[in-house]
Amino acid sequence: MLPKNTKNSEKNSTTGLPKSKTHIILEIVEYVPDTIVCKTIIKNIGGKLSAVAFDEGEKFCEKTTQYDTFVQIIDGEAEVTIGNKHCILHLGESIIIPINTAHCFKANNEFKMITTIIKHSLKRTALATKSS
User: Fold this and answer.
1) Average pLDDT of 19-30?
2) What does residue 68 show for φ and ψ, rounded to 5 degrees?
3) Global pTM?
4) In this structure, how many other beta carbons lie within 10 angstroms of the beta carbon of residue 21?
């Protein structure tokens, strides 16, 4: 769940960006003063890919995640806390937020990131459990 000052830049966030069309990753979301902007790139039952822009001073903390989440910084740098581990992610760097782990993003300066969530397949999970 995103904070109150988060703007979803699409009316229907489940549709994502147009397919078979080129996109410039840095232009998918724009910085908006005092806001976190999130735009869905792709969303389906298997997961979600989003572009997120944080204005300077914005903070987003989540208690836990339901799935592993891959985060890559595409502009600026982000202050990130995952569990008890604190780090600064710079342009081009990425990190994986493990399932069921509290995390927090803080924008000391504006930054943009791509988040990728791939949901665990129930069928695969069931097969893995049977073969164990």
Assistant:
1) 91
2) -60, 140
3) 0.79
4) 6
